[in-house]
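Example 3.
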Amino acid sequence: ILNVEQSPQSLHVQEGDSTNFTCSFPSSNFYALHWYRWETAKSPEALFVMTLNGDEKKKGRISATLNTKEGYSYLYIKGSQPEDSATYLCASLPNFGNEKLTFGTGTRLTIIP
Amino acid sequence: DAGVTQSPTHLIKTRGQHVTLRCSPISGHKSVSWYQQVLGQGPQFIFQYYEKEERGRGNFPDRFSARQFPNYSSELNVNALLLGDSALYLCASTPWVAGGIQYFGAGTRLSVL
């Protein structure tokens, strides 16, 4: 993996269902993995920053895991609500000492009431 | 406390003109980064400034320049605008350079005609 890749590109989920999506990043050059939530016409909002292999983070109904050896992270949303509709971006930070995030193209999540 | 503020919100320019975009970081934040987001892609890193010095530069032509002022606000300048410069320009601030959460503004939408 040379770039940060996210899948799927878009997702429609029924309200109340749980869902997850994937972020793949270069494992050979890694310092931190960021997840951001971006609602239309608003600022991207940080969800998680993870650095250690095996890290698991949780914020309400949203959680994330990190595998730095194989270069992937999963984001899980439990019991989806309409307010979860947004684009979810992941970004890899290869080095400590600068803030040069490399973003994926995002997963656009739409919750169907 | 105010978040990251960017001005203007929207801007329309013609090819060949130059443009200045402005960013005010969160109070106390000394690092500012600039990103370009073209429709359908993730944000792409342009510059990072910390304590008024350039700490990182992305793969952008010399037509793009930036600076940071003593109050830590920042300007992004783009000369000789091309149609392909049409994008959302995001600014993000952090307290220091440590790979942590970046706090984003809502962006400036630049249209080049």
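The mean pLDDT of chain A is 94. Chain A touches chain B at residues 4, 31-32, 34, 36, 41-46, 49, 51, 89, 91, 93, 96-106 (CB under 8 Å).
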